[in-house]
Each structure stands twice: as structure tokens, then as C-alpha cells.
Amino acid sequence: MSSCFCSKSQETEKRGAVSEDQLVISDDSTHPANLICELCKVFYNNGWVTGTGGGISIREGSKIYIAPSGVQKERMVPDNMFVMDLESENYLRTPLTLKPSACTPLFLSAYKMRDAGACIHTHSQAAVMVTLLYDKVFEISSIEQIKAIPKVTEKGNLMYSDRLVIPIIENTEREEDLTDSLQQAIEEYPGTTAVLVRRHGIYVWGETVWKAKVYNEAIDYLLELALKMHQLGIPTVKQN
Amino acid sequence: MSSCFCSKSQETEKRGAVSEDQLVISDDSTHPANLICELCKVFYNNGWVTGTGGGISIREGSKIYIAPSGVQKERMVPDNMFVMDLESENYLRTPLTLKPSACTPLFLSAYKMRDAGACIHTHSQAAVMVTLLYDKVFEISSIEQIKAIPKVTEKGNLMYSDRLVIPIIENTEREEDLTDSLQQAIEEYPGTTAVLVRRHGIYVWGETVWKAKVYNEAIDYLLELALKMHQLGIPTVKQN
Amino acid sequence: MSSCFCSKSQETEKRGAVSEDQLVISDDSTHPANLICELCKVFYNNGWVTGTGGGISIREGSKIYIAPSGVQKERMVPDNMFVMDLESENYLRTPLTLKPSACTPLFLSAYKMRDAGACIHTHSQAAVMVTLLYDKVFEISSIEQIKAIPKVTEKGNLMYSDRLVIPIIENTEREEDLTDSLQQAIEEYPGTTAVLVRRHGIYVWGETVWKAKVYNEAIDYLLELALKMHQLGIPTVKQN
Amino acid sequence: MSSCFCSKSQETEKRGAVSEDQLVISDDSTHPANLICELCKVFYNNGWVTGTGGGISIREGSKIYIAPSGVQKERMVPDNMFVMDLESENYLRTPLTLKPSACTPLFLSAYKMRDAGACIHTHSQAAVMVTLLYDKVFEISSIEQIKAIPKVTEKGNLMYSDRLVIPIIENTEREEDLTDSLQQAIEEYPGTTAVLVRRHGIYVWGETVWKAKVYNEAIDYLLELALKMHQLGIPTVKQN
Ligand SMILES: [Zn+2]
Ligand SMILES: [Zn+2]
Ligand SMILES: [Zn+2]
Ligand SMILES: [Zn+2]
Questions:
Q1: What is the pairing mode between strands A55-60 and A118-122?
Q2: Residue B14: pLDDT band by 50, 70, 90 thresholds?
């Protein structure tokens, strides 16, 4: 797999048949396949997944649901979903005409290394811009919205004056290299719930899909605010 | 209570039973529980209550309705509402699985000190940014939109060339300290219908929910405009 | 009348009875009372009529329909509309609990001096900001969108390289003085279909409600673009 | 034809009768006439086709569907559509009261020179602004979103570190001259799927309507990002 966009040369793995519709068709609006479609529309309207960019995955027990590559996010339907068994990494369902998301190994990293319940990847312009201004990490402190972000290494959320630190990894031509550096960042920053990718975007995960969504929203708010602070020459880490 | 976000360690006070559904379930779209849900969606779409931030409360006679902590604002339903008796400060209704908003003592200040009918709290980025540029108060004059803001100490609204002054209080780690300084600001600025909180957001109240909404909207417009004026080096208080 | 916002001291003129409902209640979505409500929602979502600011009026033959003062634009209903006879300036319909828009004499100027079919007034932030950067007139040339603006003094629209000139009048505490200067601007600039009001907003009119809407939209686009050009030091009137 | 806006002096060519309704009336939401209306609403909400500006056309086999001139994009209905035979350039359907889009010869260029399936023209402010900052071409490299853009001259999309180059042509008073320079740009830049028009906007095409939409979205994202990078003094082509 070579990118989060549709890779033309990529062979669709056909371990699961497209007839496994019961895995994704449900009247329950909280079914992962339905939630992915709903959230993709929200993210599209925020400008985070423009032009088929970005991705989202939800885990339910040992099954992970993944939005496909190359489909317009605001037009996603449950029938488009890939379903994978987390342990074996075999596809339980593969839509015949679609290609799996190149984000899949990155989502798997969050599931396996952090026991995440969902993982969101956006091409948010605020995320891209912040990676052009910061070097190894993005840092911000003493903004109330920081309280929405979890400490991860212990229970509870960051305090108002705590410093939020999000590592920035370098983008790569080849997806495999991005997986390696994402895993390294997750190890080096045990307290982070997100990783920025330079000139690319951001990965955010959480214990549940709703927590992942809230973390992503709060982080994007902080990235936007940081850019406005930078424009006025105000440091994002408050000096005392 | 430690923040407007969900405080994990906080004990939910169970003075009222969740069976008191008749307090919040109504076909009337103007019922406070319905209005709170409707307005939360509007505020979410404005980017004012991102990531479960912010809050809103409406008073109807001696009953106050308060949106809970930690619930995504755009997904709020009437069943999520807390109801409190204003005088005794006892909860008349407490949703079992939710925590009361940490904004509650701040909302109570507006109700008790100003006889407000509703109080809105947002994490508007314009509000946060303005508190990074102004010291003790935000001031603006000679903008038509100022006419939407009430004089408070006497009948009627501000005139075009009047100076709108909104006090800025310092944010605190602990909610109790914020309540004290909010009350002090309300006393020191008898003509204000809003208080800015540094690096946090804004509290706005009004005689009715619609007035509070209009004041909040008009103030946010003025805060945004002030930031644009600042960028161009134009003072927000017109010099004659 | 003292402002486009609700003037508390102002006596509602009760020349028409509120029972004249047939003037505003219609199943036809193109009825002026319905169109005003629909367009107010559009303008609200554009941030042009925040906090009850701004106004709109449509003329049908000798009857003019006017949105009331002090009502939230996105919650307007046909029953809120005032109806006036253009020639006598008598109200044909006066909603009992509402106050007529203070914009009324300004709308009348566009109807009487220019035979307009509709007049739109917004508090667009782009309009306000432009009046802080330009002196007597706003000018822009050589932008394709200019072709959406009419020549007024002759048939057809401006050409690409034509110069769009919109006069700027000073805002006033008292509405009457604004009416005078608006009329003067209309006389001095026979080719204009809009007048900017310093630190206040803009008035735009057209032969029909749709033309007024398109002109207002195109002008606001040009005002926004002019602000971006200013930020980059690019003159809005192209130098050859 | 003199502009993308309604040209008053232009004779409507009545080669086809308006009774040819079967060409545009369909229950199928993917019918070109329905898709044009749907996408015009999306583009309007993005601010790309404000004030009747811009245009869109879809080809189905030898028939091309074209949105008319002078109609508000968000209020377009299938009955407004022109239908033309690509080879003969004869109109198969001409709505009686409407004028054909002045973009028609430009759309035809994309169909004939590139075998496009759809062509989108917007007055995006990001497009206009970029043409004020760049000379002969707009260039950007090493941004992940570039991967959404096709190579055109060979299969597949651009790589992350590839340089996206979009030619900029000069705007003209007369439409004919724009057609000539657009065709010249298409010839000179065989790898481009878009052409910017100075002080005017952008033309984007693709093999299908969905590809054209995705390309246009991804390019606009890159144009916006380029403007933000310029503001911070960061070159859009990454230097190694
Ligand atoms: Zn990506
Ligand atoms: Zn708060
Ligand atoms: Zn006004
Ligand atoms: Zn055009």
C-alpha cells in the first residue's frame, strides 16, 4: 500500500467475500458501519477529508471496520466498508470493487499498541500548517480546551496549565516507513493520543469512537488557535 | 467541580431521581430542555462548543435546566438535562449516568446576582484570542452592532458611539476560584452582560434565552471584528 | 426611528390591523413574505445578519414587505412581516407585538429614487472592514466577479476591466441623518446599486429580489477579496 | 459569448426545442441533469459559485449537459439544463427563457482535447488570490493532498514529493480569447487537469464527474494551503 489515497497498482485482498453483508448492514445507527458514514460527513463538512483524503476506523471487540480508499467521504455507505479480524489481520469482508485504505497498518498500530477503540486520520489544514512551524513536537499549554485531552498514562484528562505535547513524524513516499515512525512515536510518547505527520495531517485515537472524535475535535481547535497565536507572536507554551 | 469538562473524580449528586422525566420531556419546542438541545447544535456549528466544551442553562421560574458535562453538544437530548431548584440549589432531576456541568456555580451567579433567564458559556476562539490581546477589559466603540447589547443599568441598548466594556477574569485550575472572580466582575461592572475568561472563553447572560443568544451572537461578532481590526492596526475604541 | 435594531422607545404605528393576514400568509414559496423568511435564513448562515442585525424588504407592485425590527433573522415567520403602501407610506399590516424596522426610510429611498424591487441591508464584517480601509468610496477593478454587477445607468453589467465604485457614507447615531446621506449618495453615484455605511454595513438593491440577492452576494465576494488583496499589499484597482 | 455571467446581448440559439424534457427529467439521482443541480448546491455552499458565477458541465457519451448562464447555482433545477451534441455542437435542448453558459467553448475544449467526462469552473477566492501571487504557473510540492491529483500523461496519481504545476492564463474581456489561451495551456501542459485564469478563477476537468469533483476539491485545498504558506513565508515548492 502506498498512500491514504487510492493506490491503482494495489491488489485488493479477497480473503472475505462481499456477500458478508450482515457485517455492515444494520438498522442500528450506532453500528460501526453506520457511524463511520455519519462521521465521514461531519469530517467532510469540516474540511478535514477533502478530495477522498483521510480515513476512519472503528473497532468492535476483535473486529475492525475501515472506510475504503478512494471513496468520497461524504458519499460513503455501509456497503463500502472493509471488516478485518484484528488478531489474524485477515479481511472478514472485502467490497469487490474497492481498495482497502492505505491507512490500515497505521490504524492497526493504534489498536495493537494502545488498545484503541477507534482511530481518525484527517488532512486538516491546521494540522498541516502546524507541522510547518514546529520541529519535533507541537506544544501548547494554559488553554482551557486542553482539559478535553486525556493524560493516557494515568486516569483523567490534562489540567489547564499542563502542556499538551503531540509528536510530529516525517511524511514518506512509501506507507511502510510511515508505519514504523508512527509506532516509534507511540512508544516514545506514551502520553500522546495523537501523532502529527509533517505536510500530511494527523492521526488521533481513543478508547471509543466518541472519545476519538472529541479528542480530534479538541486537538484541531488547539491547532487552529496555535496558528492564530503564532500570527500575533504569542508563544503557544505560556511563559511564567 | 473542577472544570467545564467532565471531571472524572466528581461524585454525581443524586438528590433527584432520573425518573423525573416529566421535567424534561415535552412536545413543546420552546420547552427549556428542547431549546437547550436546539441551541447546542447551533453553537456547535459555530465552533463555540467543540469537543464537549462550553455549556448552557435556561431558567424557567424557580427551575433551572442545565446541559450536562462531557456530552457532545450537537448530540444532546432532553433526557440528558439536569434540573435544579434555584433557591435550594437541590437537583430536581439528575440523569443517572451523567455528571453535572462544572459551569453550574457560574450559571447560578448570573441567575442570583442578575436575575438572568439564561446563561451561555462558549470556548469561542475569538473570545480566547481577544483575552490574549487585552488586559483587564475588552473595549470597542462606534460599530453599529454594539446597538444589539443592553445597557443593563438602565432600559434600552447601547448607542452606536457608546463604549462596550467587557471585563476579563483570569482562568484558574480550580473552578471555585473562577466563581469568585466572576462574581467580583459582575459586581464591579454593573453594566456588563458578559464576562471573558482569559485563555478559556466567555460567559453571556440575558433576561430570556433569546436575549442571551442574541447578546452572545452580537458580542462574538464584535470580538471577531476586533481581531480583524487589530490585524490592520486599527484601534477598537474609536479616537476622535 | 433610531437604529436598525429594535428601538425600545419607539411607538409602533398601528395604521393597519394584524388581522390583515391574507397579505402575508401564502402557500406560494415565491410570495414576498415567504421569500423574506427564506433569504433571512441564508443571510444568517453567511454571518450577515447576526444578532438581529440587518434587514430586508421586497416590493410587489405598490406594496412593500418589510422584516420587523428585533426578531432573530433565522427564526422569522411570514406572520412577522410589516406591509406598507409605497405611495402613502401607510402600513397595510402591522404585527401587534413587533416594531417596524428602522431601515424602513432607507428601503423607501431605494424604492422611490431607483424603482428597486427589493433592498437588502447586512452587517457583513467584510463591509464593515472595507469602510475602515477606504475613504469616500470603495473601488475595485479587473476581477471577473465584477461582471455580476449592473451598470445601472445603462443596460447590461460591468465589464471585467471596469471599475466598480461603491460610495461610503458616515454612520450616524440618529437614523434620519443616515437617510439623508444615503439619498445624497444615490444621487451623486447614479451608477451604484449599493451604498456602504462606515462601521455599520451595506445597503444593496436591485430590480427584483433575485437580482438584489445576486448583487449583494457578488459585492460581498468582492469586499472579502479586497481585504485579502489589501493584506498582501495588492491594490484593488489594477494599475496598468 | 462574452462572459461566464449572463450576456444580455447574446442571442439564444434555438436549435433544440424546450419540449425535449426527456433529456433532463429523470428519477435517477445519478442522471447528469440531477448531478449538476446537486453539485451546484455543494459548490455554492463552498463559496465557489457566488452570485451566479462559475459553471459545470457533464458529458454522457456524445451528449453534454451544461448549466445555464445567469441562474443562481443553488437554485438550479434539471429543467434549466442545456444539452448539446458534442460532435456537431448543435443544441439538443435549449430552455426557452435561458441563455447558454459562456463557458461552453471552454468546456468543449476539455471534452475534445482531453476526452474529459466533466468540467467544473469556479470563481474560488483561493484560485483568484493565487493568480495574484504566481506568474506563469502555480506550483506546490511535498504535501500529501497532492496524491489526489492525476499524472494525466500516464496512469496513476502524483507522488507526495512530485511537483504539481497548474498553468495560469490571462483573463480577457472577450470570451473567445480565453478559449484560445485555455487550449494553448492544455497543449503546453499535457500533464495538467486544470487551468487557472488570472483574476477570475479555475477550470478543472476529469474522466468522470466524480473525478473532476475530487480533483477540483483537492486543488482548492492546495490553493488555500499555498496562501497560508505564503503568509508565513514558507515556499510552496519544498527546497531540499
Ligand atoms: Zn493521509
Ligand atoms: Zn469552559
Ligand atoms: Zn444596520
Ligand atoms: Zn467565470
A1: antiparallel
A2: very low
